[in-house]
Input
Amino acid sequence: MNRTVRSTLFALGGLLFAAASPLAAQAKLGFVNIQQVMTQAPGLAEARTTFEAEVQRAQPELQRMAAELDSLQTDLQRQQATLTEAARTQRQTDLQTRYTTYQQRQAALQQREQALLAPISQRVEAVIEAVRKEGGYAMIFDSAESGIVAADQTLDLTNRILDRLKTTPAGQ
Output
């Protein structure tokens, strides 16, 4: 389930909980802007710098691979009428193999980005959970994805979470 649908269902579930629960008057709710927290999270700049350096190192190879694919595709189209069936099939197979390698290289870069960002995301989630427990919050919503249109700003925990992230050593 994609994140937006999951967040919307979570928000609706929270609203149903708040409306149906006899403890609704006692339930403490809060919200946080996850996008803002992630863009300001400690370690994000370093992770981005590392990733951008890796992309720059990979860029010549990706450009070379893309140029080869274009050249092979153009040659195949130009020579297709004069090639035997076996030669055409061989070139198409070669083209597909190279295209798959190109896609795998791009996917590896995307996985690397996710690997660099995962510890940051996990730390943000841990801090949010710690703030939720310490503050006695029944639920904390992501204001960027929950559909919250208006809310009491005293329920906004974004700055509290950012402060906690900045003062809590990584790994805790």
